[in-house]
Recover the amino acids of this structure.
């Protein structure tokens, strides 16, 4: 199944809309519980929050989608990412091991300096 970049970008817009709707719904519900609106207006609060969340999510993504410059920029970014050569799995494991070893060495060095300065400070204060 092959899709062109514009189709994938439109799928990302739909997923972004759904994520914005969910996040705004959770945020508005949390604010409503914190302020007390959820209890005071329990009959219609959840419907209003749902409607506001849907409108806000669609409005934000629509405003991003309708801007031609943004759309072209995202398509160009996707095209550039297609040119990236990702490391192979053995290279990734090797580089990860190098990072872990270097972090371990630096943590030992920092621990030695920390213990040395703590001992020196204890001697100065006592």
């Amino acid at each position: 199944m092959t899709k062109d970049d514009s189709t994938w970008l439109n799928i990302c817009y739909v997923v972004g809309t759904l994520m914005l709707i969910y996040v705004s719904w959770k945020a508005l519900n949390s604010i409503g519980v914190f302020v007390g609106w959820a209890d005071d207006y329990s009959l219609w609060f959840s419907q209003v929050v749902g409607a506001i969340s849907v409108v806000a999510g669609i409005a934000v993504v629509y405003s991003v989608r309708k801007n031609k410059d943004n759309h072209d920029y995202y398509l160009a970014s996707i095209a550039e990412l297609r040119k990236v050569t990702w490391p192979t799995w053995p290279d990734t494991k090797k580089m990860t091991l190098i990072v872990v070893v270097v972090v371990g060495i630096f943590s030992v060095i920092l621990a030695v300096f920390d213990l040395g300065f703590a001992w020196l400070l204890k001697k100065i204060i006592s």
Notes: The radius of gyration is 26 Å. The chain has two domains: 1-84, 86-126. The helical segments are 5-35, 37-40, 45-66, 68-82, 89-125. The CA atoms of residues 114 and 120 lie 10 Å apart.
